[in-house]
Specification:
Blueprint lengths: L20 E5 L2 E6 L6 E6 L8 H11 L4 E5 L16 H7 L2 H17 L4 E7 L1 H9 L7 E5 L6 H6 L4 E8 L5 H12 L6 E10 L11 H21 L2
Parallel strand pairs: 3-4, 3-5, 5-6, 6-7, 7-8
Antiparallel strand pairs: 1-2, 2-4
């Protein structure tokens, strides 16, 4: 499902980051930001390090500033990957927090958004979350998907996609190598009923869009370019 890169470069955690508030949405503790009465919503699904990552919360605020109601749920129930814990067991964690469960847990969140009057929903996922978003993209639950440096995807999962999807990959990525993502792009391009895009970002590694060092100008620039691609995709397809 994932490579060692999925567990590299953990963010510092702070619950005070960002303009949002923490609420319950669809049974999950969720960071919520943006205009609450917007009829357009974006679901952001984190990587293994969870919904409190400061760069992810800043990105949520950036998306919200474009007029979207943004939700970032805690799909790990307070148990994100914690590499500082000497007792942490990677394989046990993966069993408990698998992406199939993430897919099922996303459904009540989407239902809660619909119940409050949201008419169109986009979803973006990072690494672990990218796998969940690919599964959502095979349903009628969302109107558009963006997958950023995803965990390992399969041809079957790509074949099931039926909504506009953009895949943003890293040049240096063991989980989803550029060659494989380009192959997925060719598969998606045969489906004329919806829009698709695959873009490989040069000289960046898995996780670059949310685990960048804010003091590294080049890293920030590469991340922001990907954020812009993501937002443009939603502006085009979530309306």
């Amino acid at each position: 499902m994932s490579s060692s890169q999925c567990f590299e470069n953990p963010p510092s955690k702070t619950t005070a980051c960002g303009a949002g508030s923490v609420q319950e949405v669809g049974g999950l503790t969720t960071n919520v930001t943006g205009p609450p009465h917007s009829r357009l919503a974006i679901l952001l699904i984190s990587d293994v390090f969870g919904y409190e990552a400061p760069n992810l919360r800043k990105l949520a605020d950036k998306v919200a500033a474009a007029g979207y109601f943004v939700v970032v749920p805690d799909f790990f129930y307070g148990d994100p990957v914690d590499l500082s814990n000497p007792q942490f067991n990677r394989e046990e964690w993966r069993k408990v927090h698998n992406t199939e469960k993430g897919f099922e847990d996303a459904k009540p969140v989407i239902a809660a958004l619909r119940s409050k009057g949201v008419s169109a929903i986009g979803a973006a996922g990072f690494c672990w979350g990218g796998k969940v978003v690919v599964k959502l993209a095979s349903s009628d639950d969302i109107q558009a998907a963006v997958v950023l440096h995803p965990g390992t995807m399969t041809e079957d999962e790509i074949n099931e996609v039926k909504v506009p999807i953009a895949i943003l990959g890293a040049e240096i990525d063991n989980a989803s190598p550029p060659e494989q993502l380009k192959q997925f792009g060719e598969m998606l391009s045969t489906k004329s009923e919806f829009d698709s895009s695959v873009k490989i970002f040069p000289a960046v590694a898995h996780g670059w869009t949310v685990r960048y060092n804010v003091e590294d100008e080049s890293a920030v620039k590469s991340a922001e370019e990907a954020h812009e691609e993501m937002l443009n995709w939603f502006v085009k397809h979530v309306k």
